[in-house]
Structures are given as C-alpha cells and as structure tokens.
Design a protein that fits this description.
single chain, 198 residues, alpha+beta, SH3 type barrels, 10-stranded antiparallel sheet, 4 helices, 33% strand, elongated, Chemotaxis protein CheW
Length: 198
C-alpha cells in the first residue's frame, strides 16, 4: 500500500514539473512572438473597427477617432470631431496611442495579414495622390507650427506646399507663399475636404 502511494506521489510530482516546464515554454514563446510584433501590425488590427483611440502626437497635440487605414509607414485616423475628416499620421509622429484594454489585447493578437496594396503604400505615395487630387491640407510640423494649403508636388523625402486659407481651393490669387517641407518633420496631415482614406 505504501509503495502505491509513493509511486502516485512521484507521478504527481513529475506531472507538476512537466506542466511547469510547458508553461515556461509557452511563456517564452509568447514573449518571442510579442518581440516580433510591429506597431503597424497592431494598428492594422484596429483598422476598420469601431475601436476608439486617442492619439498623442510628438508636437504635443492630440486627437480622438478610429483607425481607418494603415500603410507602410503611416496610419489614417478618422477624427471624431464635429468637422470630421481624417488625419494622416506618420508612425514617427505618434508619441502614444491610447485605447481600451480590450482593444489593446486584440491588437496583441492580430489576425494573419492578407497582403493588400495599402500595406505597401508609403506616406510619400499618399501625398502624391493628394497632390494629384488637389485636396487642401493642413500640415503639423515637429516645431509646433501648422501650414495650410495644397500640395503641389511630393518628392522622395519632401513636398512642395502652396500656402492658402484652409477652406479655399488653390487659386493663383489665393496663394500667399510656397514652402518645401521635409516629410521627416511631419507630425500629421489633416485633409481639409471630405476626402477619406480606407
């Protein structure tokens, strides 16, 4: 009888040790998975959902809304204001992104990504499209300044902006100046018309 009990105790100990080892391996595997997770993947898990996010930008400004699109180096935030619209935010322009705990956990386990064209679109590509469509924009710069106008051209690492009032179309008599703006100093780009990105 005592021998039976001894063997049962040994079996229980062995089972406990195996369970502890398996749990340790699972924890390490989860750590490795999270170590490879990018901000882009986490934001992509929010794109198209109704999960509200609060954005703190590197220039001290902020916004609230939902993530409507994610590109190679930027994301679009459908802004929750009376005016509406969208902000294009380079990843480097975001200081912190707040969301509910549920949304935070959902982004830590994103669905396997299906390759889409939007995933390869860089901010420069999107800026060139805005230039082509002549959509008025407001640019927030890292120095804390805002510039409003229409993008005339967008190069590899900069854009040409014709300055004019926010709600006016670009006309020669409305343009008050021109600026070359490096893309690296953009905090966000606000679309001033009803244009959307999805």
């Amino acid at each position: 009888m005592r021998w039976d009990r001894l063997f049962e105790d040994l079996e229980d100990q062995l089972a406990s040790e195996w369970e502890a080892e398996r749990a340790a391996l699972d924890t390490e595997a989860e750590r490795l998975r999270l170590a490879g997770l990018s901000l882009r993947e986490r934001l992509r898990a929010l794109a198209g959902t109704d999960a509200a996010v609060s954005l703190d930008c590197v220039d001290g400004t902020g916004a609230r809304g939902t993530v409507s699109a994610v590109g190679a180096d930027w994301f679009a935030l459908a802004v929750a204001t009376r005016r509406g619209g969208a902000l294009l935010v380079p990843f480097a322009g975001a200081a912190a992104i707040g969301m509910s705990h549920e949304a935070m956990l959902r982004t830590a386990r994103p669905e396997p990504a299906v390759a889409r064209l939007a995933d390869r679109m860089t901010l420069g590509f999107v800026l060139r499209d805005l230039s082509r469509r002549r959509i008025p924009v407001t640019l927030a710069l890292t120095a804390g300044r805002e510039l409003s106008g229409t993008i005339d051209r967008a190069g590899a690492d900069h854009l040409d902006l014709a300055l004019h009032e926010r709600d006016q179309p670009r006309r020669a008599d409305a343009v008050s100046g021109h600026r070359i703006v490096p893309i690296a100093v953009l905090v966000w780009v606000r679309l001033e018309s009803a244009a959307t990105l999805a």
